[in-house]
Design a protein that fits this description.
There is one protein chain. With about 70 residues, the chain is mainly alpha-helical. The chain has one domain. It is built from two helices and no strands. Helix 1 (about 5-40) packs antiparallel against helix 2. The longest helix has about 35 residues, at about 5-40.
């Protein structure tokens, strides 16, 4: 969906997700999976430390978007 805003952003975002052996891509997929488990009332099986690490992943991706949209 990033490509709908700008084709260059799409490429940059894909690069961001693939950097560091696809760390962000894996963690975002994990986060989505756990979100779905919680929504279905299943045990999410996540520790406090993992939840805090996922918060950092979400912030990292959010920062990328904020810098691209430059709302200032």
């Amino acid at each position: 969906m990033v490509g709908r805003f700008d084709a260059i952003w799409r490429e940059e975002f894909e690069e961001l997700l693939s950097d560091d052996d696809e760390r962000l891509k894996r963690e975002l997929a994990f986060m989505g999976d756990r979100r779905n488990r919680i929504a279905r009332g299943l045990n999410e099986g996540i520790t406090r430390d993992k939840a805090l690490m996922l918060k950092e992943v979400a912030a990292e991706v959010a920062d990328w978007f904020i810098l691209r949209f430059n709302p200032t």
